[in-house]
């Protein structure tokens, strides 16, 4: 009976451990579905004439109102004290995310299409990885297989995204699109309108937005070390971003009529983007980055493009082309290469921490107190592994000496007793 209970407890522990390991993956995949829905709904709203500056304001106002109550209640006892440097980081985060990234992304989306915008934003893993290396948040050692996997995976991901952008190929008829793309005057008009779009300007806007988003990933990961309250941090970013976006809107839009909004697609776009892809997404993204790092979080962004391509074929009657399918395959391959590299890196870090050979560096917590932060880089990991093997050998040698010394001591004592 006791053995059966022990086995059941072991199975439950294994199941709980598996669920904990799967949580970051499920969270990031779910976020991509949320982002994909935002792209399609926002494109419809922008086509109906809504100003993207106003959309950014309403989006982050909804985000602030939706997540602020949870931050006030759930983190009232653990919220760190606000310092000047933390507030400055929050101000910059709001400028990078809600203002620069969102405005430039919406402008690029307006000039292009949801699928094209998502394809361009797939440069995010590469930009984030490079910036993480520059700021020493990621270590690159090409002698390590996991580092090679991350570098190659990033390059393959970008190559797949660029293939989707530069090569269309023939249109591929899906089962659900056979009766959607009919040849006729309407299709010719849509094709002509697409040809008139300013793709170059839209591409530049999207590149700027992606750079801002990659910078936000890096800075948010650093800010969470000082201000370890994800809900409160998300609320403050959205609130400060709303104020900044209002100033930008008044500077760019001189007509008060742009602020009018009714119970229509514009309201849906603002509410959906604010509640789902700003408040919830910022919070979940922060938690994942806190546990797995910024590169892991950004590596899932290519999945959004695949989802948008499928949703666009349903809702916006967009064609799916051969180049898009090939590019999607490359993107998924690169994605899993990066994830394998990150998984191997996490496993090595846990092994080194288990050997209890941490390297402490000075840091400052949210209340301004000096504390120790344990960080292990490539060289320290190698030292830990070497020291671990040396310690094991020393322990084995010590055990052998004791094994020889103890019988000799016993024989000597026995001789004394006989005498």
From TrEMBL:
Instruction: List, for all copies, the residue spans of the domain called EamA.
Output: 27-165, 201-339
Keywords in alphabetical order, please.
Answer: Membrane, Transmembrane, Transmembrane helix
Q: Which domain of life is it from?
A: Eukaryota
Q: Where in the cell is it found?
A: Membrane
Q: How does it sit in the membrane?
A: Multi-pass membrane protein
Asked whether the keyword Transmembrane is assigned, the reply is yes
Recorded GO MF terms: transmembrane transporter activity
User: What residues form the membrane-spanning segments?
Assistant: 25-46, 52-72, 84-105, 111-135, 147-167, 199-219, 231-251, 263-283, 295-314, 320-340
Which InterPro entries has this protein been placed in? EamA_dom, EmrE-like, WAT1-related
- Cellular component per GO, a single term: membrane
Q: Does the keyword Transmembrane apply?
A: yes
Give the family, as the similarity comment puts it: Belongs to the drug/metabolite transporter (DMT) superfamily. Plant drug/metabolite exporter (P-DME) (TC 2.A.7.4) family.
Protein name as it appears in the record: EamA domain-containing protein
């Amino acid at each position: 009976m006791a053995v059966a209970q022990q086995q059941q407890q072991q199975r439950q522990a294994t199941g709980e451990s598996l669920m904990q390991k799967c949580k970051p993956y499920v969270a990031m995949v779910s976020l991509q579905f949320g982002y994909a829905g935002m792209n399609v709904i926002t494109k419809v709203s922008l086509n109906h004439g809504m100003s993207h500056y106003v959309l950014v304001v309403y989006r982050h106002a909804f985000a602030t109102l939706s997540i602020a109550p949870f931050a006030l209640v759930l983190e009232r006892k653990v919220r760190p004290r606000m310092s000047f440097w933390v507030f400055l980081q929050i101000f910059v985060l709001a400028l990078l995310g809600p203002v620069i990234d969102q405005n430039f992304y919406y402008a690029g989306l307006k000039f292009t299409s949801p699928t094209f915008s998502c394809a361009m934003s797939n440069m995010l893993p590469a930009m984030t990885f490079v910036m993480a290396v520059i700021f020493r948040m990621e270590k690159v050692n090409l002698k390590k297989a996991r580092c090679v996997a991350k570098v190659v995976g990033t390059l393959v991901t970008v190559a797949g995204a660029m293939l989707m952008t530069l090569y269309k190929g023939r249109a591929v008829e899906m089962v659900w699109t056979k009766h959607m793309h009919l040849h006729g005057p309407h299709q010719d008009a849509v094709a002509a309108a697409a040809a008139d779009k300013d793709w170059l300007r839209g591409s530049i806007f999207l590149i700027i937005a992606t750079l801002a988003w990659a910078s936000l990933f890096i800075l948010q990961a650093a800010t969470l070390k000082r201000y370890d309250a994800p809900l409160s941090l998300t609320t403050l970013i959205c609130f400060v971003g709303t104020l900044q976006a209002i100033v930008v809107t008044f500077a760019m839009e001189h007509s008060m009529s742009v602020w009018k909004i009714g119970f229509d697609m514009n309201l849906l776009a603002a509410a959906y983007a604010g509640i789902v892809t700003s408040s919830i997404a910022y919070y979940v993204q922060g938690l994942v980055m806190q546990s797995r790092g910024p590169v892991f979080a950004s590596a899932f962004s290519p999945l959004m493009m695949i989802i948008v391509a499928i949703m666009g074929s349903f809702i916006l009657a967009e064609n799916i082309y051969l180049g898009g399918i090939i590019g999607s395959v490359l993107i998924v391959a690169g994605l899993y290469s990066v994830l394998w590299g990150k998984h191997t890196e996490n496993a090595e870090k846990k092994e080194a921490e288990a050997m209890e050979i941490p390297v402490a560096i000075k840091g400052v917590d949210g209340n301004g107190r000096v504390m120790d932060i344990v960080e292990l880089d490539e060289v320290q990991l190698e030292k830990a592994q070497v020291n671990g093997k040396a310690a094991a050998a020393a322990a084995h040698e010590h055990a052998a000496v004791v094994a020889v010394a103890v019988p000799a001591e016993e024989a000597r004592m026995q001789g004394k007793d006989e005498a």
